[in-house]
Design a protein that fits this description.
Blueprint (H helix, E strand, L loop, with lengths): L5 H10 L18 H14 L7 H14 L2 H20 L10
Helix pairs in contact: 2-3, 2-4
């Protein structure tokens, strides 16, 4: 996985003061991944406004919408992360969406 590559982790550890190392990441939790709980849903909503012809069409749509994505959407998703993490901890890793 590219986001766990040793070089990436080293760079993020050096350049990002609050970087959380992969050893502390929750395993496969879409509720705690800003791309999963915010960005992909928005991209999907935009990409499926009309019928997708094939995989090439879908790929092109995703790439176009990603390029159009406002940085504020990503920033907002990242700001929500700590609150989501706290809610997850409070629920001992159980369902927490209703707590947000």
């Amino acid at each position: 996985m590219g986001h766990k590559a040793r070089e990436t982790v080293t760079l993020l550890s050096q350049e990002t003061p609050d970087f959380i190392p992969p050893s502390l990441w929750s395993p496969n939790s879409p509720d705690l991944n800003p791309v999963d709980y915010k960005v992909w849903g928005l991209l999907q909503e935009r990409d499926y406004r009309s019928t997708v012809k094939d995989i090439v069409d879908l790929r092109n749509r995703v790439m176009q919408e990603w390029d159009r994505l406002d940085q504020r959407v990503i920033d907002q998703a990242i700001r929500q992360w700590r609150g989501r993490l706290r809610a997850c901890i409070a629920q001992a890793g159980g369902h927490f969406e209703y707590k947000l």
